[in-house]
Amino acid sequence: MRNTAETIGRNALAGIAELGLAAVLLLESLGWLFTGARRRQPVRFSAVLQQCMDIGLRALPIVTVLSFAIGAMVAIQGIHTLAIFGAENQVTLGVALSVTREFAPLITGILVAGRSGSALAARLGTMKINEEISALTVIGINPVRYLVAPSLLAMVAMVPLLTWYADLVALLGAGIYVSLELGISFTAYLGELRQYLDNHDILHGIGKSVLFGMLITLVGVVNGLGVTGGAEGVGRMTTRSVVHAISAIVITDMVFTFVMTR
Amino acid sequence: MSAVIEVERLVARYGEHTVLKGIDLQVQAGEIMVIMGGSGSGKSTLLRHLLGLQAPYSGQVRLLGEDINAIPPQRLVELRRKMGVAFQGGALFSSMTVGENVMLPLREHTRLDESTMQIMMRLKLDIVNLAGCENLMPAQLSGGMIKRAAMARAIIMDPRLLFLDEPSAGLDPVVAASLDELILKLRDATGMSLVVVTHELDSAFKIADRIAVLDHGDILVCGSVAEVRASPSERVQALLNRRIQPLELNPEEYLKRLTGGPVSSGATA
Q: ipTM above 0.90?
C-alpha cells in the first residue's frame, strides 16, 4: 500500500519536473529567438530552414495522402449517417466544419508528432549519450539556442502551413466523393463550402495547430534530453515522446475547443 | 607563476552520496597536470566541475582567476573561448564532417571568412596527423582518429587551457605514444596549461609535470612524478604498481553469498 503511494508520489514529482523543464526550455528558446542576435549569439537561420525542410516539405506527400483519405472518409460517413434523416445534401456543412476545425489539425498534429517529434527526441537523446550536448556547452554554444530554438521556430511555422494544406486536400477529397455520390457538380460543392465556411473555422484549426507544433517540440526535446542508458534508452524515450505528444495534442484539442466555443 | 586553475574545498554530491570530499587543487600556467585515480575515485566528476558542466555542492572553481559558477553567462562564454576540451569518446557531432566539427568553434566565436577558417582547420588537422580527413564523417573514423579529431577541435581556438579526458584510452601503444608527443609539443609551442585525466601510467609519467592521485573523493598526493612515485601511501603504491588489493575472505560470508542468504557488508575491497 505504501509502495503504491510512494510510486504515485515519485511519478507525480517527476511529471511536474518535466513540465517545469518544458516551460523553462520554452522561455529560454523564446529568449534566444528575440535577444540572441543582440548578444552576438543568434539562432542560426540555416538550422531553422533545415528543420522547416524536414518538418514541412518532406511531410507533404504523406499529409496529402492522409488528408485526402480523411476528407473522403468524413464525406462517406456523413452521407451514410445523414441518409437516416434523408438529409444527405447537408453533408457539405458537416464536412467543412469538421475538417477545418478538427480533423485537419488533429491528423496533421499526430502525423508530425510521429515523424518529427520522434526524430527530435531520437536526435537529442543520441547526442546526449554521446556527450555531444556537453561538447556544445564547453565550446560555449548554448544547447537550447543551437538545438531547441530552431526546431521550435520551424514547428510553429510549418505545422500551421501543413494544416492549411491538409484543409485544402481534405476538402478536395470530400468534394470529389460528395459530387460523385450526390451527383452535384464540383463547382456547386465549392459554392456550398464558401457559404458555410467562415474565416473563424479555418483560423480555429490553424490556431490549434500552432499550439500543437509547440507541444510536439517541447515533448520531443524534454524526452530526448532525459535519455539515460544507451541505445535502449533512446528507443524508450522516443516512443514515450510520440505517445506523450499525441496525448498532449488530443487533450489540448479538447480544452482549446471547449474554451473557444464558450 | 600564477595559477590558471584553482579548486578550493570542492565538495560534490549525487543525492546523499558525497563523491568529492573537499578537493584543493592548483594548476600553474604552462603546466601539465595529470589527474589519476581508480574507477569510482571521482575523476570524471572533478573534470565535469572544472569544465563548468556541473555546479559544486560547495567550494569554488576558478579558471583564469574567475569563479566560473559566479560570473554572468556572457563572461563564461568568453572564458570558454580560451578553453579546449577533448572528451573521452571524442563527442564529435555525428551529423557533421570532421572538418565542420573542427571549424565549429571558429564559426561560433569568430567572424573569419570561410577560407581562413578552412586553412586553420587544415593546420590543426595536420598537427594531429589527420591531414586530408576533413570530409570524412565521424562514423567513418577509427578510434584513434576520433580522439585526434576531438583534439583538433579542442585546440582550434589556440586555448590557454586544454582538458583531455582519457586521451590514450583504447589506443594501441604506438598511437598513444604519438599522442603523448603531441601533447608535449603543444605545450612547449604554445605555453598552454593542460589537465589530463588518465589512468595510463606510462603516458602519465611521460607527460606530467605534476600528478594528482584521487581516491574515493580525496586527493591522496599531488606532486611531481618523483614525489608521487616515492609516496608512502598504500593506495598510491597499489595504483602505481598495479597491485591487486588483497581480498579478505571470510568462508562463512562466502558461503552465505553463494547460497543467497543474508550477508553483512561484503568482503570485497
A: no
